[in-house]
Amino acid sequence: xxxxxxxxxxxxxxxxxxxxxxxASGSISSIYGMGWYRQAPGKQRELVASIxxxxxxxxxxxxxxxxxxxxxxxxxxxxxxxxxLKPEDTAVYYCNARDRGYNWNYWGQGxxxxxxx
Length: 117
Fold this sequence. Notes:
- The structure is a single chain.
- By secondary structure, this protein is mainly beta.
- Helices cover 0% and strands 54% of the residues.
- It is built from no helices and eleven strands.
- It has strands spanning 2-7, 10-12, 18-26, 33-39, 46-52, 57-59, 67-72, 77-82, 91-98, 105-107, 111-115.
- Strands 2, 4, 5, 6, 9, 10 and 11 form a seven-stranded mixed β-sheet that branches. A four-stranded antiparallel β-sheet has the order 1-3-8-7, with no helix packed on it.
- Strand 5 and strand 6 (57-59) form a beta hairpin.
């Protein structure tokens, strides 16, 4: 079992920045990919950014150039640095961890990000 705990969400003004953290515990040796998803009210959950154990990254087009995902294996933590935030970034952000073959898939509890003036 893998447990994921997100933190760092909050209320920021447009143009501001936030850094989300996701700490993993449990059976973490087999984690291949970690990522951040978000879900706004009435919308589907979407992939924001992902990173593999080899630190290959992938970003949604809507956040490219503004968000950066990183992984600290020593701390078992993945981060999402969010800059130049826009109101449309408002959502609950969820951390995800999986193995290479999608045999298992774990989610954190989510952290609210609200971008508003």
